[in-house]
């Protein structure tokens, strides 16, 4: 997972849930920006369903 603002990979999950059930709240340690990302358990299921098409 990378920060969408500074492209750093030094990020930490702050909250397991965010605005949507499939997202988590993440903080970038490099630029101290908070953002939402797709939770890892949903990333693999969305990738596999996209490959099935």
List the helices and strands and how they pair.
Layout: E1 11-15, E2 23-28, E3 34-38, H1 40-51
Antiparallel strand pairs: 1-2, 2-3
Largest sheet: 3 strands, antiparallel
Straight-line distance between termini: 25 Å
Outline, from the CA principal axes?
globular
Helix-strand pattern? EEEH
The averaged pLDDT comes out at 85
The helix tally amounts to: 1
Please state how the strands of the largest beta sheet are arranged side by side.
1-2-3
Secondary structure: number of strands: 3
Structure description:
With 53 residues, the chain is of the alpha+beta class. It has one domain. It has 1 helix and 3 strands; from the N terminus they run E-E-E-H. The longest helix has 12 residues.
Features of the shown structure:
53 residues; alpha+beta; three-stranded antiparallel beta sheet; 1 helix; globular
Offer a quick outline of the entry:
With 53 residues, the protein is α+β, with helices and mostly antiparallel strands.
